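Support request, please re-run this one:
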Amino acid sequence: MKVTIQTTLNVEGNRGFRNGEFHVRDSEFKKDPDFAVAEVAYEWVQKQKRETGQRETIIEKVTWNEKNDITQIVREIEPVLPEDDLPF
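Re-run finished. Output below.
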């Protein structure tokens, strides 16, 4: 499933709007469309943060297909870190 995601981010006081077209897995989209798109949007926001040198970024608004607001869902996604099972 292809969706258009729009982000409005505030990077240290500078607001920016970006949009792009992304592919979301059909099986995930059928289960929970907002969360499936939010996962893709979260990854895209992280990419945008890396492009700005990891400066402080506030997620102001995230929508998909211009009408579905998923801002809060994207804000609540937390990265899953691998467990530290090293022997030292």
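The chain has one domain: 2-76. The chain is about 35% helix and 35% strand.
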